[in-house]
Design goal:
By secondary structure, the protein is α+β, with helices and mostly antiparallel strands. The chain has 6 helices and 13 strands. The strands form 3 sheets. It has a 6-stranded mixed beta sheet with strand order 4-5-8-7-9-12. It is globular and about 50 Å long.
Length: about 230
């Protein structure tokens, strides 16, 4: 997968990647594929069992024992760490992967489904990062379903509009009521004091480059990963 990132003024760097269909299934049922991706990126990848809530898992030195820990052993929708050389992974197949970092090198990753956004997952990740020493927090958004493909129920859409503002309301290509998930992530990040770096992520439901549960009924998942390199790397 293509790798992007930023250099830290204090030394070291933050790197991230967003996979797609070309990298194959990286769901919980494919731990060997996740391990291979980690070997390719040269970091162990930690992931969680995502439940569309606001739980956050903190990855610490204790998780780096030789035995490691089982893939997706913890139910959560966010991960944070202050460690170098550790990948935080979020699985999606239409939901929004949000990857976060601070100048101090504290990292976060959030599963931005509409349910998690509604209960405050981005704010929960930002608070956990602050607890680890983060000051300002930036974030980037990966591939997710676009409003042109995301027909949405009127009642939950109204709730999200009450919380995040009218920009989350949109229309599908066919004219039905739709959720603009990108706008919801932007509003949630703003509420949490997180600066969302300008990006134009592709729609997972358009074309065949990404797995999409909504468009294709895919059970496979792509994986978005963020990690930090030390100054010597």
């Amino acid at each position: 997968p293509s790798i992007d990132g930023v250099d830290l003024s204090s030394g070291g760097a933050v790197r991230w990647c967003f996979t797609g269909r070309a990298q194959g299934d990286l769901s919980e049922s494919a731990p060997a594929a996740v391990a291979r991706l980690g070997s390719q990126l040269e970091v162990p990848i930690f992931a969680v069992h995502q439940v569309h809530g606001d739980g956050v898992d903190v990855v610490t030195e204790a998780d780096l024992s030789p035995a490691g820990r089982p893939v997706s052993a913890i139910e959560a929708d966010g991960l944070v760490t202050a460690l170098t050389g550790v990948g935080l992974g979020i699985r999606t197949a239409d939901c929004a992967p949000v990857l976060l970092w601070s100048p101090e090198g504290v990292l976060g990753a959030a599963h931005g489904g509409w349910g998690g956004l509604e209960v405050g997952i981005i704010g929960a990740v930002a608070r956990s990062m602050t607890d680890l020493g983060a000051t300002t927090i930036d974030a980037t958004l990966g591939p997710c379903i676009g409003p042109e493909c995301y027909e949405f129920g009127a009642e939950p859409l109204a709730r999200l509009a009450d919380r995040f503002g009218p920009d989350v309301c949109s229309r599908t290509a066919a004219g039905s009521e739709a959720l603009d998930l990108r706008a919801a992530v932007t509003a949630a990040a703003d509420d949490a004091g997180v600066r969302l770096v300008a990006s134009n992520p592709p729609c997972t439901a358009c074309g065949d480059d990404h797995f999409s549960h909504r468009a294709h009924g895919d059970q496979a998942r792509q994986l978005s990963v963020i990690w930090r390199l030390d100054a010597a790397a």
